[in-house]
Design a protein that fits this description.
single chain, mainly alpha, 133 residues
Length: 133
């Protein structure tokens, strides 16, 4: 492993050149020393455990991604439904105002109609009174 490591330098450390990269190099060097001192069965066991964890994490990530997509779709659908319902509320509110205006004008028409009928009766009564005299 050390031979492979010496042939492939840490590209991140070379590109960034910061103190954090030096710390990373030290941790990586310590890790490489620890792994190189392990026997083959232990290394295989560790590798299998790491791959197991990686596989489980990838499966969880994939499931979460699907869940997130479904929730996003449900949220988008709900937002669209809210917009449609809001539009209907606005339309119904306008219609209600128009009806209220018509009702108030209709009530005014009814009052005017009653006055006209009352005056017509008064005129009719006056004509009869004139005809009698």
């Amino acid at each position: 492993l050390e031979t492979v490591r010496s042939r492939l330098p840490n590209i991140d450390a070379i590109e960034s050149g910061d103190a954090r990269s030096d710390k990373q190099l030290k941790v990586e060097d310590d890790t490489m020393k620890m792994i190189s001192n392990l026997s083959t069965p232990i290394t295989k066991t560790l590798l299998i455990e790491v791959l197991d964890n990686l596989t489980a994490s990838e499966i969880d990530r994939s499931m979460m991604k699907g869940t997130l997509q479904r929730k996003d779709a449900a949220l988008y659908s709900s937002e669209n439904e809210v917009q449609v319902l809001h539009g209907q509320i606005v339309g119904l509110s306008k219609d209600l105002k128009k009806r209220n205006n018509r009702m108030s004008s209709t009530e005014g028409d009814e009052v005017a109609h009653e006055k006209i009928e009352k005056m017509s009766h008064e005129i009719h009564d006056l004509k009869e009174a004139v005809d009698i005299n």
